[in-house]
Write a structure and sequence with these properties.
Strand content: under 5%
Largest sheet: none
Number of helices: 9
Number of strands: 0
Order of helices and strands: HHHHHHHHH
Distance between the termini: 67 Å
Helix content: over 70%
Length: 162
């Protein structure tokens, strides 16, 4: 495990993953949540998503407060087209830390991708409550508000045309 960590610091990721995996095979209890996350992330980068996901989920089980795992799960799971699952992970991160700026921001992005403008507006608003000077969040909030308004106008037009 120590050799794996040294190799990682030297930028030899593939060798590092190999030694970390060996350490895991010999003694699963030796790895921390951060180690499992590193392994999971590495496997995902090699397009071994199922294996990578299982290690990331193990990291969450070991340390539910290790928020970086949730961010990565959101990214990977959203990419796989499972936005609702990704949203659930972000809500878990927020539950663990209600002042988590990044979780709210990622949540806003994932909700916006689903065109769930009401919830995206809430998420981006939370970001700005936590950190009022976050220009990108302001931009995203304005876009979400405009889309929400457009959506509401379409609903009104549909009702009026019926």
């Amino acid at each position: 495990l120590n050799l794996a960590k040294i190799l990682a610091k030297l930028g030899k990721k593939r060798e590092s993953v190999s030694y970390m995996y060996r350490a895991l095979s010999l003694n699963p209890e030796i790895l921390s949540a951060k180690d499992y996350f590193y392994l999971g992330k590495s496997f995902m980068e090699q397009d071994r998503l199922r294996k990578g996901l299982s290690y990331c989920l193990k990291a969450v089980r070991l340390d539910p407060n290790y928020l970086e795992v949730y961010y990565h799960l959101d990214k990977v799971i959203t990419h796989k087209g499972q936005q609702q699952k990704a949203i659930n992970y972000l809500y878990q991160a927020i539950k663990r830390n209600p002042k988590d700026l990044q979780a709210y921001y990622l949540l806003g992005q994932t909700l916006a991708a689903q065109t769930n403008w009401d919830e995206a507006v809430k998420a981006y608003s939370q970001v700005l409550q936590i950190q009022p000077k976050f220009p990108l969040a302001s931009e995203k909030l304005n876009h979400a508000l405009a889309e929400k308004l457009k959506q509401q106008k379409q609903k009104i037009n549909q009702i009026n045309s019926n």
